[in-house]
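Backbone geometry:

***
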Amino acid sequence: MSEDQKRILETQLWGIANLLRGKISADDYRDYILGFIFYKYLSEKQYLYANELLEGEEVTDYKEVTDTDTLDAIKEESLLKLGYFLQPKELFSELAKKGNADTESESNYIIEDLQAVMNHIEQSTMGTESEEDFNALFEDLDLTSTKIGRTVGARNEVIVKILNHLDKIDFKLQDIDADVLGDAYEYLIAKFAAGAGKSAGEFYTPQQVSKILAKIVTTGKTKLKSVYDPTCGSGSLLLRVAREVEDVGEFYGQELNRTTYNLARMNMILHDIHFREFSIEQEDTLENPQHLEKRFEAVVANPPFSAHWKSDKNPLNNTDERFSQYGRLAPKTKADYAFITHMIYQLADNGIMATVVPHGVLFRGAAEGTIREYLIKELNYLDAVIGLPANIFYGTSIPTCILVFKKCREVDDNIVFIDASGEDHYIRNGNQNELREEDVENIISTYRNRETKDKYSYIANLEEIAENDYNLNIPRYVDTFPEEESVDLAEVSERLVGYDNDLEEVNNEIIGFCTELGVVPPFKVGEDGE
């Protein structure tokens, strides 16, 4: 599929999303639109796979299969391959067709049927390997909610309209790479994030920032055994990492928000990541980590900035290996270093970790200063500090930076500092600042080549950082202030003489005018008439 066709698909899907825009909140219509797109995707995958299994059989169109033994056989294979099962009558196109019926003999009421289908998708996985990945996956699609209509009839009308519009779009799953529909899905998530205000940061990292993180953690690698995001949101950052290498063996993530957790699982499945290849869990990462026994080759994250956590209320934190070696716990009102040390704990010896943090992490003292010094002085894990433009994330305008960590650094006697926050390194796009492709590439090449560039980057040795008391504030290392122009003293002196001559001529003219008018000059005249 060409880029033009992909853009057409994105436009079509966003057009359907706009059917609800202005009628209900952005967060709510996001859940309905993305949920229905996901249902259509599952349906088309089931239809195509069932037809593959029916090749050479008497009935070759899955929609026409009625034989119980055949359906049981298709179900068994589908659960192994797809992780779920849909009967022919449960396919998206069949429900959309019923929604179009509007005769005296046939009703177009589909809400109960649609709810039953979504329940059955989840139920079909019970007792199988994929049960956890599909459990309560559609719980945010409340078809009885008055948010989409005050009456049952009004709700049914809205749902029928959405399904009809979606049914006209051919996802062409048999002809295109999985990333095409996935890209369109990501496009919608980004559009919803742009309109979601402060809550957007809970589920989406801007694409260009994701690209920087992904390129950093895949430096020098063509394949990854595993990638992990402890605050994975919609899963977009995990999926972005996969684009930078030939293959990722396993994807791991954890997300606190239930709705966002559901979105992440949908996103993984829709990008054709097999259910055996990902594990997304819903829990508080700091209080109840779900993958603690594992070590990951790549770790990426955009944790909530300066979040509160129960550092002082859980006595186990003082002995928790993720936090205990640093001498102090991260402040209860600023969990940034709790997330950092958690990720370092799960980073493999050959791995790279890149995380977005607020600038305060670079220079705040007290407990954070102690942890920061230990990371640099005792462990020597910090590899780079990359400053980003302000107002680049949805929901916050504060400037942010990326910290890069390695347990086994190839160059272990210095740290790369990059200041990509200047006006020359981004563009303005509406209300947001945005990194261009060339800005991303400049950051990545500077990091990988460990280059010092005037007004942009600096390679600081560890002694210099120690002299700064382990303060990592970027302006201490990258001088971005404009140089003062040199002053030519001879030229200035000549100009001053010229000013004196000009002043003398003006004064003489004033004296002449005053004499003609018979008034005293406004300044004292010397004995020599000057």
